[in-house]
Amino acid sequence: DIQMTQSPSSLSASVGDRVTITCRPSQSINSYLNWYQQKPGKAPKLLIYGASSLQSGVPSRFSGSESGTDFTLTISSLQPEDFATYYCQQGYRGWTFGQGTKVEIK
Amino acid sequence: QVQLVQSGAEVKQPGSSVMVSCQASGDTFTKYTITWVRQAPGQGLEWMGRIIPSVNIRNLAPEFQGRVTLTADKSTNTAYMELNNLRSDDTAVYYCARETTTFKGFDYWGLGTLVTVSP
Lengths: 106, 119
Prior knowledge:
The complex is a heterodimer.
Chain A (H helix, E strand, L loop, with lengths): L3 E4 L2 E4 L5 E7 L7 E6 L6 E5 L3 E2 L7 E6 L2 E6 L9 E6 L5 E2 L3 E5 L1
Parallel strand pairs in A: 2-11
Antiparallel strand pairs in A: 1-3, 3-8, 4-5, 4-9, 5-6, 7-8, 9-10, 9-11
Chain B lengths: L2 E4 L3 E3 L5 E8 L7 E7 L6 E7 L4 E4 L7 E6 L4 E6 L8 E8 L6 E4 L3 E5 L2
Protein backbone atom coordinates (compact mmCIF):
# COMPACT_ATOMS: atom_id res chain seq x y z
CA ASP A 1 0.00 0.00 0.00
CA ILE A 2 1.13 3.55 -0.69
CA GLN A 3 1.09 5.67 2.44
CA MET A 4 0.65 9.44 2.31
CA THR A 5 2.27 11.57 5.00
CA GLN A 6 0.69 15.00 5.16
CA SER A 7 2.01 17.90 7.20
CA PRO A 8 1.26 19.82 9.25
CA SER A 9 -1.80 18.20 10.81
CA SER A 10 -3.10 21.65 11.67
CA LEU A 11 -2.10 25.25 11.31
CA SER A 12 -3.34 28.66 12.38
CA ALA A 13 -3.25 31.48 9.89
CA SER A 14 -4.73 34.89 9.24
CA VAL A 15 -6.68 36.19 6.28
CA GLY A 16 -4.19 37.20 3.61
CA ASP A 17 -1.49 34.77 4.71
CA ARG A 18 0.29 32.45 2.34
CA VAL A 19 -0.29 28.85 3.40
CA THR A 20 1.54 25.71 2.31
CA ILE A 21 0.65 22.10 3.02
CA THR A 22 2.93 19.23 2.12
CA CYS A 23 2.30 15.61 1.24
CA ARG A 24 4.93 12.90 0.87
CA PRO A 25 4.09 9.49 -0.58
CA SER A 26 5.86 6.34 0.58
CA GLN A 27 6.87 5.59 -3.01
CA SER A 28 6.82 7.25 -6.42
CA ILE A 29 3.33 8.13 -7.66
CA ASN A 30 4.12 9.79 -11.00
CA SER A 31 2.15 12.99 -10.31
CA TYR A 32 -1.05 11.06 -9.54
CA LEU A 33 -1.71 13.46 -6.67
CA ASN A 34 -4.89 15.35 -5.93
CA TRP A 35 -5.90 17.89 -3.30
CA TYR A 36 -9.32 18.29 -1.70
CA GLN A 37 -10.93 20.83 0.61
CA GLN A 38 -13.55 19.74 3.11
CA LYS A 39 -15.71 21.95 5.30
CA PRO A 40 -17.57 20.58 8.33
CA GLY A 41 -20.61 18.53 7.41
CA LYS A 42 -19.86 18.77 3.69
CA ALA A 43 -18.45 16.45 1.06
CA PRO A 44 -14.87 17.02 -0.05
CA LYS A 45 -14.27 19.28 -3.02
CA LEU A 46 -11.59 18.63 -5.62
CA LEU A 47 -9.15 21.53 -5.88
CA ILE A 48 -6.11 20.23 -7.74
CA TYR A 49 -5.55 17.09 -9.83
CA GLY A 50 -2.46 15.67 -11.43
CA ALA A 51 -0.32 17.47 -8.84
CA SER A 52 -0.70 20.93 -10.41
CA SER A 53 -3.85 21.21 -12.55
CA LEU A 54 -6.52 23.51 -11.16
CA GLN A 55 -10.00 21.98 -11.17
CA SER A 56 -12.57 24.02 -13.07
CA GLY A 57 -14.16 26.72 -10.94
CA VAL A 58 -11.50 26.69 -8.23
CA PRO A 59 -9.98 30.12 -7.46
CA SER A 60 -6.49 30.74 -8.80
CA ARG A 61 -5.12 31.44 -5.31
CA PHE A 62 -4.93 27.65 -4.98
CA SER A 63 -1.98 25.97 -6.65
CA GLY A 64 -0.21 22.64 -6.52
CA SER A 65 3.38 21.73 -7.17
CA GLU A 66 5.79 18.83 -7.04
CA SER A 67 9.41 18.89 -5.99
CA GLY A 68 11.37 15.70 -5.70
CA THR A 69 9.27 13.33 -3.64
CA ASP A 70 7.13 16.07 -2.06
CA PHE A 71 3.88 17.59 -3.22
CA THR A 72 2.68 20.98 -2.02
CA LEU A 73 -0.65 22.78 -1.93
CA THR A 74 -0.30 26.54 -1.69
CA ILE A 75 -2.98 29.09 -0.92
CA SER A 76 -1.42 32.39 -1.97
CA SER A 77 -3.68 34.68 0.08
CA LEU A 78 -5.94 32.95 2.56
CA GLN A 79 -9.59 34.02 2.40
CA PRO A 80 -12.26 33.57 5.10
CA GLU A 81 -13.93 30.79 3.11
CA ASP A 82 -10.66 28.81 2.96
CA PHE A 83 -10.73 27.78 6.61
CA ALA A 84 -11.29 24.07 6.22
CA THR A 85 -9.53 20.72 6.25
CA TYR A 86 -7.37 19.79 3.27
CA TYR A 87 -6.51 16.29 2.12
CA CYS A 88 -4.01 14.99 -0.39
CA GLN A 89 -4.77 11.79 -2.30
CA GLN A 90 -2.68 9.48 -4.44
CA GLY A 91 -4.20 7.65 -7.38
CA TYR A 92 -1.18 5.81 -8.71
CA ARG A 93 -2.04 2.49 -7.12
CA GLY A 94 -5.52 2.32 -5.66
CA TRP A 95 -6.45 5.46 -3.77
CA THR A 96 -5.00 6.67 -0.47
CA PHE A 97 -5.66 9.90 1.37
CA GLY A 98 -3.36 11.82 3.63
CA GLN A 99 -4.40 12.37 7.23
CA GLY A 100 -5.62 15.89 6.58
CA THR A 101 -4.55 19.41 7.52
CA LYS A 102 -6.95 21.60 9.43
CA VAL A 103 -6.52 25.28 8.61
CA GLU A 104 -7.82 27.40 11.48
CA ILE A 105 -8.18 31.10 12.08
CA LYS A 106 -5.37 32.68 14.07
CA GLN B 1 -24.85 19.50 -14.04
CA VAL B 2 -23.79 16.18 -12.58
CA GLN B 3 -25.59 15.17 -9.40
CA LEU B 4 -25.10 12.15 -7.19
CA VAL B 5 -28.06 11.58 -4.90
CA GLN B 6 -27.52 9.21 -2.01
CA SER B 7 -30.01 7.32 0.12
CA GLY B 8 -30.89 8.45 3.61
CA ALA B 9 -29.33 7.84 6.99
CA GLU B 10 -29.43 4.37 8.50
CA VAL B 11 -29.21 2.94 12.01
CA LYS B 12 -28.12 -0.68 12.11
CA GLN B 13 -27.37 -3.32 14.69
CA PRO B 14 -23.92 -4.93 14.92
CA GLY B 15 -23.65 -7.97 12.68
CA SER B 16 -26.27 -6.76 10.22
CA SER B 17 -25.83 -5.30 6.73
CA VAL B 18 -26.48 -1.94 5.15
CA MET B 19 -26.95 -0.91 1.55
CA VAL B 20 -26.35 2.64 0.42
CA SER B 21 -27.46 3.82 -2.99
CA CYS B 22 -26.10 6.56 -5.22
CA GLN B 23 -28.18 7.73 -8.18
CA ALA B 24 -26.41 9.72 -10.88
CA SER B 25 -27.90 12.32 -13.17
CA GLY B 26 -26.64 14.95 -15.57
CA ASP B 27 -24.19 12.79 -17.49
CA THR B 28 -23.92 9.35 -19.02
CA PHE B 29 -23.62 6.90 -16.15
CA THR B 30 -21.56 4.43 -18.10
CA LYS B 31 -18.88 6.98 -19.04
CA TYR B 32 -17.23 6.95 -15.65
CA THR B 33 -16.45 5.12 -12.44
CA ILE B 34 -18.32 5.39 -9.16
CA THR B 35 -16.09 5.27 -6.13
CA TRP B 36 -16.94 4.97 -2.44
CA VAL B 37 -15.25 6.79 0.42
CA ARG B 38 -16.13 6.78 4.10
CA GLN B 39 -15.36 9.09 6.99
CA ALA B 40 -15.75 8.09 10.62
CA PRO B 41 -16.74 10.86 13.05
CA GLY B 42 -13.88 13.32 13.46
CA GLN B 43 -11.60 11.22 11.26
CA GLY B 44 -10.10 11.39 7.78
CA LEU B 45 -11.18 10.00 4.44
CA GLU B 46 -10.91 6.29 3.67
CA TRP B 47 -11.28 4.90 0.14
CA MET B 48 -13.36 1.74 0.05
CA GLY B 49 -13.63 0.72 -3.58
CA ARG B 50 -14.87 1.53 -7.04
CA ILE B 51 -17.08 0.12 -9.76
CA ILE B 52 -17.01 0.77 -13.50
CA PRO B 53 -20.69 0.36 -14.48
CA SER B 54 -20.04 0.05 -18.21
CA VAL B 55 -18.06 -3.18 -17.79
CA ASN B 56 -19.04 -4.17 -14.24
CA ILE B 57 -15.44 -4.21 -13.03
CA ARG B 58 -14.82 -3.64 -9.34
CA ASN B 59 -11.80 -2.89 -7.20
CA LEU B 60 -11.90 -2.98 -3.42
CA ALA B 61 -9.42 -1.71 -0.87
CA PRO B 62 -7.87 -4.74 0.88
CA GLU B 63 -9.45 -3.94 4.23
CA PHE B 64 -12.94 -4.18 2.71
CA GLN B 65 -12.54 -7.33 0.65
CA GLY B 66 -15.01 -9.96 1.76
CA ARG B 67 -17.28 -7.45 3.51
CA VAL B 68 -18.23 -4.97 0.78
CA THR B 69 -20.22 -5.60 -2.38
CA LEU B 70 -20.44 -2.97 -5.10
CA THR B 71 -23.09 -3.15 -7.78
CA ALA B 72 -24.55 -0.85 -10.42
CA ASP B 73 -27.87 -0.75 -12.23
CA LYS B 74 -27.40 0.90 -15.61
CA SER B 75 -31.15 1.08 -16.21
CA THR B 76 -31.60 3.48 -13.27
CA ASN B 77 -28.09 5.05 -13.21
CA THR B 78 -27.73 3.85 -9.63
CA ALA B 79 -24.73 2.40 -7.83
CA TYR B 80 -24.97 0.46 -4.59
CA MET B 81 -22.57 -0.26 -1.77
CA GLU B 82 -23.42 -3.06 0.64
CA LEU B 83 -21.40 -3.48 3.82
CA ASN B 84 -21.87 -6.71 5.76
CA ASN B 85 -21.20 -7.83 9.30
CA LEU B 86 -21.38 -4.30 10.64
CA ARG B 87 -19.30 -3.28 13.64
CA SER B 88 -19.42 -0.17 15.78
CA ASP B 89 -16.34 1.19 14.02
CA ASP B 90 -18.26 1.15 10.73
CA THR B 91 -20.20 4.15 12.02
CA ALA B 92 -19.36 6.77 9.44
CA VAL B 93 -20.56 8.98 6.64
CA TYR B 94 -20.39 7.06 3.38
CA TYR B 95 -19.85 9.06 0.21
CA CYS B 96 -20.11 8.11 -3.43
CA ALA B 97 -18.13 10.13 -5.94
CA ARG B 98 -17.48 10.25 -9.65
CA GLU B 99 -14.10 9.29 -11.01
CA THR B 100 -13.62 10.17 -14.70
CA THR B 101 -10.01 9.08 -15.08
CA THR B 102 -7.45 7.90 -12.57
CA PHE B 103 -5.46 11.08 -13.12
CA LYS B 104 -8.32 13.47 -12.42
CA GLY B 105 -9.49 12.44 -8.98
CA PHE B 106 -13.07 12.57 -7.77
CA ASP B 107 -14.78 15.60 -9.29
CA TYR B 108 -18.40 15.18 -8.11
CA TRP B 109 -19.52 13.84 -4.76
CA GLY B 110 -22.80 12.84 -3.19
CA LEU B 111 -23.83 14.57 0.04
CA GLY B 112 -23.04 11.49 2.07
CA THR B 113 -25.06 8.92 3.99
CA LEU B 114 -24.63 8.55 7.75
CA VAL B 115 -24.61 4.94 8.87
CA THR B 116 -24.77 4.45 12.62
CA VAL B 117 -24.03 1.03 14.05
CA SER B 118 -25.44 0.69 17.53
CA PRO B 119 -26.89 -2.16 19.63
